[in-house]
Amino acid sequence: MKPETINFFDKVYQVARQIPYGRVTSYGAIANFLGAAKSARMVGYAMNGSHDKEVPAHRVVNRKGLLTGKHHFDGTHLMEQLLESEGVKVIDLQVQDFDAVFWDPSKELKF
DNA sequence: CGATTGACTTACA
DNA sequence: CTGTAAGCCAATC
Fold first, then answer.
1. What is the pLDDT of residues A8-22, one digit of tens each?
2. Which fold has domain A3-100?
3. Is there a contact between A29 and A15 (Cβ–Cβ < 8 Å)?
4. In this protein, which residues make up the domain named Methylated-DNA-[protein]-cysteine S-methyltransferase DNA binding (predicted)?
């Protein structure tokens, strides 16, 4: 495993943690922000270990605003409930008004 | 160590 | 517009 890769994972965690309340972002957006636009899967994979990183993975969805990773959470609708609790409307694993709640790290976050 | 898979995305038919 | 293909890279088998 290359040290840079670890940096990549670490950055994913950092960015994910900076997601504002009631906002969501996509794997691709984070990957693009980190300079690995074609490695969106790595972002999702990084989320695999996010459980121990205090990372709000429920705020990270795919490009369509679909909660594809909800199956990796404890409960069945935990991810949806968490988002709903933050004011994000989620219907059938689909974030409503995705564009309105979308949080682009490359625009909102400046390293 | 080679093959398979996966919390994705883009491109082309 | 729907379906299939490929690329990405690390983890798992």
1. 899 999 999 999 999
2. Arc Repressor Mutant, subunit A (1.10.10)
3. no
4. 7-88
